[in-house]
Write the structure tokens for this entry.
Amino acid sequence: MLKENCYISDLNLAMNKLGSTGANAVGNMLENNTTLKSVNLSGNGFGDKDAEPFMLALKNNYRLKDLVLSHNQFSEVGGEFIGEAIASNDTIERLDLSWNHLRLKGAIAICKAMSENNSIRCLDLSWNGFGNEGALAMGQALKFNKQLVDLDLTNNRITNEGALAISKGLEQNDTLKVLRIGKNPITAAGALAILMAIKNNLQSVLGDVRLTDILITKEFEDLLKEILEERPNLKVEHGGRGGYGYKRREVEGNRHPIDPMAHLLDYIQKNNLRLLDLFQRFDKDKSLSVSRAEFKQGIQSTGIPLSNEQLEELLNQLDKDKDGEIDYGELVLGNREQIKKDRERQINTINQIKDLQQKEANKKKLLTMDDLNIKKEDLSDAAWVDRDHRENMIDEGLEAVRSQNKVEVMS
């Protein structure tokens, strides 16, 4: 019916357990259909070999704009079929491959195809297993692709090495507007590399960067503040500096959702105050002690952007003896503890960069094209997983982060 239908443009067959038989039937239909613009095939139990009929269909279908293949079981072989389809199709604008098992050769095939594709604007690869190998290939693809606007790499087992690879691509990309790369085992060093790439690329149009659940440091915040002076519309979501117990954090404009004590100290520094100056504003009777209610009211009167939850957290941090009073000595102690935390984070960032560099220097064997059974001539000049390119890129990325973001650690 759908082969000859000339009216239906949107087809949703999600969660129907179509399996291999259904994949062949739908693929055959798509080869001949000329009216469908959107097809949802999510959650149908498609395996690797079931990707082949879709590959054949997309080579011949020039009407389809939106294709959802999420929540299936495509892995390496399936990824290679999909990569072939992406490379040959120039009409698909949105492709959802989330929640599959795409990795290694399959992931690399998709990324290589994206360097050639000139139609996909939104690509969802979240909740797969791209890892650092896939991230390396995607970093290369971003250098060549001129159409992709929205890229989702959430939860793909990407570490700092992969983040550095992505950052190298971002330094040359001038079309990507949204990047989602949160919920990956990336530390502050990797997040810093991505932010530095945005700063270094004057042609970048990135306006929304999601580093969901990735903790950052003061160096990251300082760099972000500098970037926001030139790009005030940039939005960056991250895991904050506080870590445990914090909800979703978003930085928009020059708002910096961080540890409440850090917020307080930032206010003091920006207004050229001493701790004593601030405390005396709240301490009307000059007793060097105020109630929790008085301290809370005083903080609110300053305009420091703290939620009620953050205010309670700040009060709990300062009221060490739990007597319901905040005395000046407790505020001084809170200041010292915050300085110690900032110092430790700075040291951790430096150590993470050094450890990553040492790890790469000590590696006796890196993933090569021979390991992946990929012919060198098939990769053109992109050097997708070439050993020398891989090592140089990591070294250059680390050196860029270290040289442009020197961290002075108080001894």
Observations:
- Residues 242-257, 364-391, 405-411 have pLDDT under 50 and may be disordered.
- The first helix runs from residue 19 to 32.
- DSSP finds 15 helices and twelve strands in the chain.
- The first strand starts at residue 10 and ends at 12.
